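debug: dumping io for the single-chain case to check the tokenizer round-trip. Nothing else runs in this session.
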Amino acid sequence: MSIIESAEAFARAKNADINFCKSIVFRLKSIGVNDEQVLCCAFLCHSNSSFDEIHARFGREVATGVTSISRDWTLPRKIQEEQYIKQLQDAPWESILIKLCEISATLKILKDSEMSKTKRGKILKQNIHYLNVLKKKISENKVRTPGIERLLDGANETLVHFKQRPISF
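debug: decoded output
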């Protein structure tokens, strides 16, 4: 079993939404990311696993990548969001790519969803906020990942679909 298959199986055992994780991995591959450790992080970032659990099974680099874009659910809600924004701002580029692919997958789900307008609006607003938090880092690094333009264009198309201003990167 490859490390990616092992990460998928681990995430499945932890009740992560495997279809959502697969859509993140698909987007990563579509922009040219083939690094096995990055793809493992994409499967594991929704597994609700601790750093120690991931470190023991997949190593320090994967555990660090996962925790750099995972919320600390043990913190109070207000502090949790502040901490999460700081983590995103300090995350390595590979983790930013995972988060960007997660946002892209979420926006696709919203576009095709029949959820309430209120819930959809809240999720949309949150993802726009994360894109704005990551905007500077994306602008500075997008030349490192040539396929990223299609992903950013797709995100902006969805924002326009929901009558939101596109974000220039």
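debug: round-trip ok. The radius of gyration is 15 Å.
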